[in-house]
Write a structure and sequence with these properties.
By secondary structure, this protein is α/β, with parallel strands linked by helices. The protein has a single domain, classed as Bacterial extracellular solute-binding protein, family 7 (D-Maltodextrin-Binding Protein, domain 2, 3-Layer(aba) Sandwich). The chain contains 13 helices and nine strands. The protein has helices at 2-23, 40-55, 73-82, 115-124, 126-137, 176-184, 197-203, 213-218, 244-248, 252-284, 295-307, 309-315, 320-333, and strands spanning 28-33, 60-65, 87-91, 140-155, 169-172, 188-191, 208-211, 227-243, 289-292. Strands 1, 2, 3, 4, 5, 6, 7, 8 and 9 form a nine-stranded mixed β-sheet that branches. Helix 12 (309-315) packs across helix 13. The protein is globular, with a radius of gyration of 23 Å. It starts with a helix and ends with a helix.
Length: 336
């Protein structure tokens, strides 16, 4: 009898020890990458990391790495597909080399640039749903899209007419609709990583770039440019991403925690970007010449790209069906 009790006591002790060990299992380190630093995009990445840690009860120890600390956007996307970068925040156009259809959010004059309206558009977009499916096939889980805001022209020269863009060198993200738009306007489009832009403007190898007010002001590009011309010619949609390989390997409750964090981060982004774009534009007016392009010239910009890059994208065998879906999305959303 004594022997039986001893065995039972040892077994119970081992079980208790195992339970304690299970409770103290080290948290999983989770990396969220972002190319910018000290701006709203970086703030969104910090919030995503914070909420993953919170909703997982600390079992995921997430941290955001700003300013290309994990590599360029292209490098982080490759690492995400491999599962070594777990989360990523970036404009959707940077995903074009992997999922070409995702570049179509960059079609010029697609939708107005208010961040919350852009997010609402993406949430009901059939094109966005299809893009999400295509990204999953390439190892990227799109948790959602949110609006960043409108792109405007940042230049070292005054822009009063579309003809002023002729021959000027503009940095664009590597997205065919953006590249095509600048080609239609007679400019020279130069895809380039963000980390190279400040120096290129400073050294004169670039004449301009397109940016929302927030990124332009907080990263101090006004130090190396002279004019900020309000055109809202394109908008920046951002993808809130997770590595599919990593996410699929998590227990169901941790998958739920990550998805919940993603959903709440999208909502946080709307408020953050609405505030940031407004306050940054106000601040920009104090440090650089902010002007509006005359309405007649803005209409010329629209007309040129409608006959140009829009038609080319429609006639592209791969992208054409998605362009038509987006047009249907825009028509439906405008009636809401």
């Amino acid at each position: 009898m004594k022997s039986t009790l001893s065995v039972a006591f040892v077994a119970a002790s081992l079980f208790a020890a195992g339970a304690v060990l299970g409770q103290t299992k080290p948290a999983m380190n989770v990396l969220v990458g972002v190319a910018t630093a000290n701006d709203t995009q970086a703030e969104i990445a910090e919030k995503f990391a914070e909420l993953m840690t919170k909703y997982s009860g600390g079992r995921l120890k997430a941290s955001a790495r700003q300013g290309e600390a994990l590599g360029s956007n292209a490098q982080m996307l490759a690492a995400m597909q491999a599962g070594s970068v777990h989360g990523l925040i970036l404009p959707s156009g940077f995903m074009a080399p992997i999922v070409p259809e995702l570049a179509l959010f960059d079609l010029p004059f697609l939708v107005p640039g208010a961040p919350a309206k852009m997010t609402a558009f993406a949430s009901q977009s059939k094109a966005a749903a299809r893009m999400t499916e295509l990204a999953a096939q390439k190892g990227i889980s799109v948790m959602g899209f949110h609006g960043i805001g409108p792109s405007n022209l940042v230049t070292k020269f005054p822009v009063n007419a579309i003809s002023d863009l002729q021959g000027k060198r503009f940095r664009v993200i590597p997205s065919p609709p953006r590249v095509g738009a600048y080609q239609d306007w007679g400019a020279v489009a130069r895809p380039m990583e963000l980390g190279e832009v400040y120096t290129a403007l400073q050294q004169g190898t670039l004449d301009g770039v397109e940016m929302p007010p927030d990124v332009f002001y907080k990263m101090k590009y006004f130090e190396v440019t002279k004019f900020y011309t309000l055109t809202a010619h394109t908008v920046f949609f951002s993808g809130l991403l997770a590595s599919k390989k990593w996410l699929d390997g998590l227990p169901k409750d941790l998958q739920d925690a990550v998805n919940r964090a993603g959903k709440d981060t999208i909502a946080f982004a709307d408020t953050a970007y609405t505030r940031a774009q407004d306050t940054s534009l106000t601040s920009l007016r104090k440090v650089i010449a902010v002007r509006e392009l005359p309405s007649a010239e803005l209409q010329k910009m629209k007309d040129v790209v409608r006959k140009g890059v829009w038609e080319r994208m429609k006639n592209d065998p791969q992208r054409g069906p998605m362009v038509r879906l987006l047009e249907e999305d825009v028509a439906r959303f405008s009636k809401m």
